[in-house]
Write a structure and sequence with these properties.
Layout (H helix, E strand, L loop, with lengths): L5 E4 L2 E4 L2 H8 L17 H16 L7 H11 L3 E6 L2 E6 L9 H19 L5 H14 L3
Antiparallel strand pairs: 1-2, 3-4
Helix pairs in contact: 2-4, 2-5
Length: 143
Amino acid sequence: MVKINMTRTPEGLQATDAEGQLALSKIGEGEVVQVEVTQPRNSQFHRRFFALLNLVFDNQERYQSHGELLDALKFGIGHCDTFMQSGVQYAFPKSISYAEMTSEEFQDFYNRAVHWVCSVVIPEMDKDNLEEAVREELLGFGD
């Protein structure tokens, strides 16, 4: 399966790069193909989440690494796969990679993460103050 990025123009969908144009040129005129339409996740929003993670890590003493905090967050909001074996339930954190989550799914993940931070990790922080602190953290990244 070939994945290409396209943009909508007045003439219809157009490939955004030479690789996409080449893939489209291999489809014969009148040939039927199946297309799945998705919008790539916004990289700025992904950076916003990691600014949140950095900010939270720097303002808590419970978690020893960013990875430990990220896994705890995923478990805390239920972003994990579970299974039972011999009466014991096991859980593994799910990925948040671009390939694994749509923009809408990531938005929901982010909102649940903010709620978890404000209720579990830094309960004295309200959502609005946390979001403002994240904006300031992003400015520190050069955005």
